Amino acid sequence: MFAVVNTSSISRTNVASILIGASLLFAGCGGSDSASDSGSSDGGSSAGVCASVQAIADASAALDETESAEDSVAALRDLSDALDGFAAVAPDSVKADAEQVAESTSILSEIDPEAGPTDEQQAVVDDEATDESAEAIEDFARSECDIDLGS
């Protein structure tokens, strides 16, 4: 889940830690390369939903591979885009969770590596509801798409 950072001593290292911590939203992602046929009927097509879950897995893996704060911000923006794509096609059972995580990641993706997190960004990092929503998405991805987004 999201890392907790003490904003009273922000440095570039702390900002990088927040960005890398954000990637832990879906840490250790892997999974299948194909969509499951058992998707829900209350959202996009099963294949489309699972393709969007795979895009989250791919973006999260790319974020895990970054080495600089600037690269982390760019990768976090890609993860934000993937989460927006999932939120657009998510079935009703996880739509609210998908929208919450997409919004939170969007807020974090605007972090300035030089200035550190804003109060709003730090609030996202500290928000347990976002962690719970991420867990719901991880459960959905595992059960409906056979894609492991969690650690």
General description of the model:
The chain starts with 11 loop residues before the first helix and ends in a 6-residue tail after the last helix. Mean pLDDT is 76; it is low at 1-14 and 26-42. Helix 2 (46-64) runs antiparallel to helix 3 (69-89). The protein has helices spanning 12-23, 46-64, 69-89, 92-109, 119-126, 128-145. 64% of the residues lie in helices and 0% in strands. It has six helices and no strands. With 151 residues, the protein is mainly alpha-helical.
Keywords:
disordered N terminus, mainly alpha
Task: Outline the secondary-structure elements.
Layout: H1 12-23, H2 46-64, H3 69-89, H4 92-109, H5 119-126, H6 128-145
Helix pairs in contact: 1-3, 2-3, 3-4, 4-5, 4-6
Shape: globular
Task: Estimate the mean pLDDT confidence.
Answer: 76
Give the DSSP E fraction (strand runs of 2 or more residues).
under 5%
Oligomerization state of this entry?
single chain
- Low-confidence stretches are 1-14, 26-42
Which class do the helix and strand fractions yield? mainly alpha
Number of alpha- plus pi-helical segments: 6
Radius of gyration from the alpha-carbon trace, in angstroms: 15 Å
Which sequence of SSEs, written as H and E, runs from N to C?
HHHHHH
User: How would you sum up the major sheet?
Assistant: none
Distance between the termini: 10 Å
**Helix percent band:** 55-70%
Q: What's the β-strand tally?
A: 0
